[in-house]
Amino acid sequence: MRTLKHIFENNKRWAETIKKDDPDFFNKLASQQTPEILWIGCADSRVPANQIIGMLPGSVFVHRNIANLVVHTDLNCLAVIQYAVDVLKVKHIIVCGHYDCGGITAVLDGTEHGLIDNWLRHIKDVYRYHREEIDQLKDSHARADRLCELNVIEQVSNVCNTTIVQNAWVRGQELSVHGWIYKVSNGILKELQSCVTNQEEARQLLS
After folding, report:
1. CA–CA distances in Å: residue 144 to residues 94, 121, 138, 147, 152
2. How many Å apart are CA 50 and CA 128, to the nearest integer?
3. What pTM did the predictor assign?
């Protein structure tokens, strides 16, 4: 199966369905990109950004990596944020984690996983910051769920503290940063905190 023929067949059916509802959809899509949302999510195949929020192509600018991390030395992620904020002028940045995240589980199981352990080091730091709270939870699933939530909140803080977002707020640009989490087992999103819309709210998040 060198060509993955079934995927191309699926693609044709999908495109035909879209054109049936809106014959000019792809022409309009090709002429411009004007999303209002930047989605920073996990690379997990069970968490597709557009589908779980019910939005069509062109509506969401997406960056995904293992465990939805925003690392200040990750030029890939920073370039996406910069383009989304400065060029596309998105109004919302959503950091969306999910329960049953393999990256989170890998941090808590205490075993080595190879190269990815260097990336997961950032989650280990989140765990270290909140070790007392997490370790008080007796159930392993509860500990993992809570670390998933705390990791999202930490990444929201990281987004807010990029020079990109800080400078946007200084300019008076309309920009909100949100922390959400997704439950794979029921398909439902949950907001983890009020959205952050300016520098003062970002400072309060850190306090």
Report:
1. 21, 16, 11, 5, 13
2. 33
3. 0.92
